[in-house]
Amino acid sequence: GEPLLLAETRMTFERSSGKRISTLLDTAKDWERESEDELSWVWLPDADDETKFPTTLHGFLRMTDDDLWLTANSLNRSEKGKQALIDLLGDLVNPQLTRLQSPEQLLAEEEMTMDSSPGSDPAGIDLDPDELSDILSDYLDQHYRKALDEPIPALDNKTPRQCIKTKNGKKKVIAWLKYLENQEYRKASQSDGVPYDFSWIWNELGLDKSTEK
Predict the structure, then answer these.
(1) Three-class DSSP category at 150
(2) Residues in contact with 113: Cβ distance below 8 Å, sequence separation at least 6, in sequence order
(3) What is the rounded CA–CA span in Å between residue 75 and residue 98?
(4) DSSP code of 155?
(5) Which helix (H) or strand (E) holds 6?
(6) Is the pLDDT of residue 213 over 70?
(7) If pLDDT is split at 50, 70 and 90, which confidence band does 51 have?
(8) SS3 sequence, 95-146?
(9) Distance of alpha carbon 22 from alpha carbon 75, whole angstroms
(10) pLDDT digits (tens, 9 = 90+) for 140-178
(11) What is the pTM of this model?
(12) How far is CA 11 from CA 21, 66, 67, 132, 196, in A?
């Protein structure tokens, strides 16, 4: 129900503190490492009362040689994530800069990058509402098609395709889809927009929305 913004916060640290920081993140209950081979974590704080799942993914964190980059999809989550890192890491890190972008700005920026060429004017891009809606829809299509084959925290870190093979897993996938739809309808009602259509995902997974409870 929050305004959708891509918020990226950079937090610097001394290189000598890198190992200590990664250890603290690995042992913190709200931060889960994505892969043993990568210095990246997902932020999974306790869910609020409106959420049916035990945890909700609130952001991503990646570590470079002397920076932490926190990415969240709203300003509120970004500020809470920044404070959570300060509470966990203390003076090991130093908040520097938070950059905010709306989906429209992000897509326009990507369009300018793709369309710009020597001698062209990248500022000359003008998207009408229908074009922007199509771009956002295509982006979400790609995002959710990829998500069908990726571990989802709300599905016990299994992929949706894996979960539908069992009765209990199927129930979790249905709850996950309904949660996504409810969030999309809430966001659309606040912005007078058109909610994203998840019907193709139900069909892709062989689920009949009209009969599933």
Answers:
(1) coil
(2) 122
(3) 9
(4) G
(5) strand 6-12
(6) no
(7) very low
(8) EEEEEEECHHHHHHHHHHHHHCCCCCCCCCCCCCHHHHHHHHHHHHHHHHHH
(9) 25
(10) 788 788 889 888 877 888 889 999 999 999 998 998 888
(11) 0.47
(12) 12, 9, 6, 33, 34
